[in-house]
Amino acid sequence: MTEPIICFGQQPCGFFPKRFLVAKINTARALQKEIGGSGASAGGAKIVFFYHDSDADYRETITVMKDTTTGAEVRLNFLQENKLQKKFSPLYAKRIPAGWQEEILKQLPRFANKPLIELFAETKEKTVADFCLAMYQKMGLLDGIEILRSSNKTFREQAPDLAGEYFADVEYQNEVVRAKIELPAAPTTPPLGSARGTPPQQGGEAPQLSEDITRSLSPLSKIPTGASGLRGSPSRSEGEVVGVIHEGGNQFIRFPIAKPIEKWQKSAARDQRFAWMQSVINCTHYIYGEGEKEYLNVSPFPNIKFIDRDKISDPNYAWLG
């Protein structure tokens, strides 16, 4: 019999975690207690936190708090060493410049109690993802919970290779950036045996397959191998692999990738991320948030029990104990 594994996923979500993350943790612990045991070693359910530190959006780590004196909402965030790193580097590679922590410490007495401020002051990690994770651990939120990071090279090597639309951590202007990969253009004549002779759809979103075809494919093979370029992509040399980073609006930067992309550099696009994660974790229960419910297709995973996180007030505010 498979031991139960309870999983939830989340990006780094502030140097003090957002309340919705704490709600996921509390839901997981309550479910673990209901199932029985306090971990696989005790014959009970194990809890795994899949830490999405491969994402690049710096807005994920905004910490929202209220001034205890005025009640005003204040948003604080990390700084990075340069603009390129801020916009395009994955969260595990966004480096924190000297002086940032000292500036935040000057403001924290308006929001947090002394023990929490002291925890913040003693945290010395140098990247955004490391700093956030260290804070959550010091606050006692992750005691007894296994942590698996999406940036972890061993995890990426264990997962099936990604085909179709995916992202990769590649070098651009001396920084590591998370780029969407445009594969070499597919042949204009579809290969023999292709479904109805229809080539893969092109565009910024993953191709949408019919429900019947989707059922016939494993979760990690839904997107056919081929070009995944954005509309308006300029022509390029045959066989050239191109990285794409989004500047905002309709503005994109495309750059050639000369070196072969290794498996440990790759991470899944949003719609393939759950299947990518599940291929390694093999969870039996998954706690998802309000945002995930809007896009996560659960039908390919009939053996997993999907559970809503507990409701919590002010979910986007920082949890301060």
Explain the overall architecture:
The chain is of the alpha/beta class and 321 residues long. It has 2 domains: 5-154 and 269-308, Rossmann fold, CATH 3.40.50; 161-267, no CATH class. The chain is built from 9 helices and 12 strands. Strands 5-2-1-11-12 form a 5-stranded parallel beta sheet. The longest helix has 17 residues, at 19-35.
Instruction: Look at the structure and give the CATH class of the largest domain.
Output: Alpha Beta
Helix/strand order: EHEEEHHHHEHEEHEEEHEHE
Spatial sequence of strands, sheet with the most strands: 5-2-1-11-12
The first-to-last residue Cα distance is 38 Å
CATH architecture of the largest domain: 3-Layer(aba) Sandwich
The average pLDDT is: 85
Low-confidence stretches: 191-234
What profile does the largest beta sheet have?
Answer: 5 strands, parallel
Gyration radius from CA atoms, angstroms: 21 Å
Number of strands: 12
List the domain count as a whole number: 2
- Approximately how much helix is present in the residues? 25-40%
* Portion in strands: 15-25%
Overall structural class, as computed from helix and strand content, comes to: alpha/beta
- The general outline is globular
